[in-house]
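Homework help board

Subject: predicted structure for assignment chain

Our instructor gave us this sequence and asked us to write out the predicted structure in token form, then describe one feature. I got the tokens but I'm not sure how to describe them. Can anyone check?
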Amino acid sequence: QTINAQSGQVTSASHTTSIKSSKIGDIKVEEIDGVIDNILDNTVVPKINEMITKGVTLPIDQYVVLNKGVLEAHDDFVRVCADDTLTDYSLQELKKIAENLLN
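My token output:
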């Protein structure tokens, strides 16, 4: 049985830092950026990659098989595309639905 899993890898992370207010005095954004870059590069990104390189199984393998998958990360969304083929089980279920509609 084919398992429909999506996997990937984060190769870089970018962010914008701004300081709205400070109760401890003047803070330079560049100093905060360095800390955030370090946290992203050494903690967040490796943890995400640890999870997504294993793949995330989609709970659809009984109904459809995905081929030639593409995962695209954009600024505010992720696009997942694939060619799909209905399984024999799906075709049987669709046939039952059609027969019930016609009877």
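Reply (TA_rk): Your tokens look well-formed. For the description, you could write something like this. The first strand starts at residue 5 and ends at 6. That's the kind of observation they're looking for.
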